[in-house]
Amino acid sequence: MPGFLLRTCLLLAVEAGAALLLSEAGAPWIPVLLAVFVIGSAVPHGTQAEFTARFLVALTAVGVARLGATVREQYGEPAEPLAAGAGLAALLLLQSVILLRLSRGASRR
After folding, report:
1. To 5 degrees, how large is the angle CA 64–CA 34–CA 41?
2. Which of 62, 31, 47, 22 is CA-nearest to residue 101?
């Protein structure tokens, strides 16, 4: 379980930083999302994760960062960012389930 918590906290910190950077006007979004993708694919290191699982974790990390920036941009506007918030919550849940499964698989070896 400590491996799961460490992986999740690391990924959440990277995603929060990326969402903060992406919510600014004129932010260079390609390098930020590329960095999130690279870190997201490296997070399952030490597990038996193959290409598909690493790609899925990295892709959800990019989605969380982008939706997080969208939610942050829409915060305080008259239109409620309910759809983006629901999508963000769904991606975070999916990411947590994937990381938990990968982390539990690594502890069984």
Report:
1. 70
2. 47
Neighbours of 102 (CB within 10 A): 22
Q: List Cβ neighbours of 100 (8 Å cut-off, separation of 6 or more).
A: 4
Question: Which secondary-structure segment (H or E) carries 104?
Answer: helix 82-107
Helices 2-22 and 29-42 pack at an angle, to 10 degrees, of 180
Between CA 69 and CA 32, with CA 35 as vertex, the angle to 5 degrees is 40
Query: What does pTM read for this prediction?
Result: 0.77
Could you give the CA distance from residue 59 to residue 57 in angstroms, rounded to a whole number?
6
pLDDT digits (tens, 9 = 90+) for 18-52: 988 888 878 888 899 999 989 888 887 777 778 88
Instruction: Provide the token pair at 8.
Output: 């999740």
3-state secondary structure of 45: coil
CA distance linking residue 3 with residue 89, whole number of Å: 22
